[in-house]
Automatic annotation (TrEMBL):
It comes from Gonapodya prolifera (strain JEL478). Substrate binds at R397. Pathway: Glycerolipid metabolism; ether lipid biosynthesis. This is Alkylglycerone-phosphate synthase. Catalyzes the exchange of an acyl for a long-chain alkyl group and the formation of the ether bond in the biosynthesis of ether phospholipids. GO terms for biological process: lipid biosynthetic process. FAD binds at E262, G263, I264, L265, G266, I267, V268.
Amino acid sequence: MAARELSVWGWGYADTPEPPQVDSALQSYRFLLGKPNYTLFPPDVAAIARGLRKPRFNLADAPAEVRQICSDDPKTRMRLSYGRSTRDIFRAILGGFSNPPDYVALPRTESDIVALLAWADRTATHVIPVGGGTTVAAGTEPLKGATRVVAVDMTKHFNKVLEANTTDMTALVQGGVTGPGLNTQLRKWGLTLRHFPQAWELATVGGWLATRSGGHYATNLTHIDSFVVSLRIITPRGIIDTLPVPSSGAGPTPDRVFLGSEGILGIVTQCRLRVQHPPQHRVATTLVFPSFAKGSEATRAIVQASLYPAQCRLVDGAESRAYGIGGDVRLDQACLLLGFESAHVGDLETRCMAPAIALARKFGGLVVAPGGTDTESPAADESATFRSSFITVPYLRDALLLRGFWLETFETACSWSRWEELKTGVEAVARERKAVVTTRYTHVYTDGPAMYFTVAFRPSSPNAAISEWNRMKTAFTTCVLDHGGTLTHHHAVGKDLAVFYEREKGAVWTDTVRAIKRHFDPNGIMNPGTVVPVQQSGEGTKSKI
């Protein structure tokens, strides 16, 4: 069977049909925002590929092992020109593939990567590690002003589970394996990882590590960090191999330096992850609350009671209606998707669900969809309708973008004591810019929620759309920081938010990150401009030859 072809310009696979909810979503946004100002059509990929900028340098000076793994295929270079944010998709629709990587490397072995980095270091060639290419923060976009760029695609050859240890419950996994590939291979040992970000079908384990992705667990094991035992990273300075032990108190840990580093220090080739047996016991329900505030109080009570639900997502009324959850929920209400799972412990209804529902009822929670289990799949503990929407939303986003509506998301985390003022501030920014915004909690902690906002607006014209969104995104980001939120809970910093990094982390830590980068990457070749901006000296922007 032939492998499915990834879309050059849009989300996911080229042969994926538009989701069935396009018409209903279009009707809703026409009601909320008015008639769109334009209609677009998918780009002519073949025509753009024929006129794509040629590589700006040849590989004559490269060693044989580098030449053998590099391709200048136009469509592949186009696909890796951008991530998959709405702005990325919009630029691609307009045919704006003006800054593609010069080559795409498909390393076969670690020796290939070592040779590639050594050559790139010598020739001041930028190296951008790419997993599934699903970044929504411009994390893999070539830096403007760069003159030599190679994107490194790890998915073709570094895509295996090398071993699994059912005594330690760990697995040694290569960085280029995707979510489905990981799950399929772990089943041979009767194991699973249970980490399902929205981009699960496309994104890679290495990408999850590089961006500190958030999975489907709403409490407890929320970030990929919690699953990491050890890492193996190839840097321009050498190879880092961290110790595979359950925990260590031996000073600062290197794992924490590389998690979330977004390819600015090196390339993750493999990692050891904590795995588990697939859940055999599940229970789920949906509750409706008279307001988002009441639902928030109930959610906080549940998470602070240490019940550790796998699913604990609070969704506002507008988004609940869009997803078809909660029945005839009103716009001023909210729904809580609540679920528990276990591989070994049964009777979750009595042990976990009943106490959680009792807490929810104190805040006006009404059960509207009791019970229910599901199969092993992304977001398996969620309702079938919500799960389907969760996976297909990016495809819906692309379809609506062609029809003149701009949908984008951003997320943050803040304390319980500040969530309401942050939400109010975001809604005020949206109103000022004639946009609509919906809210949900994706993950919850004892000290606060991770808030996920979906923004929709009607650009005035194709030429103005990007600048209108850029101004809006800056306003939203500033609002989040002003109200005590973090730049990102699980979307990463990328190049989009790098200019705000110092404001959140402070000058001392930002300078420390730069110093760490200089140590592992003395010549600034590894994905410059991501996480922290390139300094005024021009670091990382010019070729030495």
